[in-house]
Amino acid sequence: MAESIRKGMLVTISVLMADMTGKTLEETPPEGIVYLHGNGDIFPKLEAALEGRFAGEGFSIHLEPEDAFGEYDAEAIKLIPAENFAHPEVLEPGAVVDEVPGEAPDGRTWRVTDIAEGMVVLEANHPLAGIGLQFAVKVLDVHEPTESELEAMEDDGTESLVPPFLKIADRIVSEDDEDDTPYESAGALEPDDSSMARLARPPRIVR
């Protein structure tokens, strides 16, 4: 008997994400991606729409900005002198920093969007913030995870299975970025007793 999607099932889906004009923004490879249903690793409304479906089913769903990458926040843009950064010489559009010079880290990741006349523009909005999105989804496989699959997920984390465009990202990082050491600004605060002091590193560059 075919299995339906329910909490704890390992589900393979193919997804195409487009904007409201129909322009394709992202899509999974033909073989799809795997996620653990009910674990909160994909957009909640998308996960809810998958509940109860079977392999072979397809559907479309529209997500408003608040259900995807959030509303655009005009306050999430800052103009900072380049000299305030520990490594201003390597800053370029696309670089990612974990804190704003002179401010306490607030958990957000900031992208360098522009550099001009010695000033750096930082933005914490996701590139797709404020945009309604359409998803075309097909369920490719549904099964209970095997013991080896569960062990692999315990080692790597279930969120590692899901591409960034299917989940609310609180960090913007390159898929091939293996260095999780945050970039530190010249105005970084001293680490507290629960963390180790970090050496200043150049920012990550997202291509």
From TrEMBL:
Tell me which UniProt keywords the record has, alphabetically: Chaperone, Cytoplasm, Isomerase, Rotamase
What biological-process terms (Gene Ontology) are attached? protein refolding
> What GO terms fall under cellular component here?
cytoplasm
Residues annotated as domain PPIase FKBP-type = 8-81
What PROSITE patterns is this protein classified in?
A: FKBP_PPIASE
The UniProt entry, under SUPFAM superfamilies, shows:
FKBP-like (SSF54534)
Keyword check for Kinase, yes or no: no
Catalyses which reaction? [protein]-peptidylproline (omega=180) = [protein]-peptidylproline (omega=0)
Q: What is this protein called?
A: peptidylprolyl isomerase
The reply to whether Phosphoprotein figures as a keyword in the UniProt entry is no
Family, similarity comment: Belongs to the FKBP-type PPIase family.
Q: Where is this region: Disordered?
A: 172-207
Q: Which organism is it from?
A: Sutterella seckii
EC top class named in words: isomerase
Cellular compartment(s):
Cytoplasm
Main location, first listed in the record:
cytoplasm
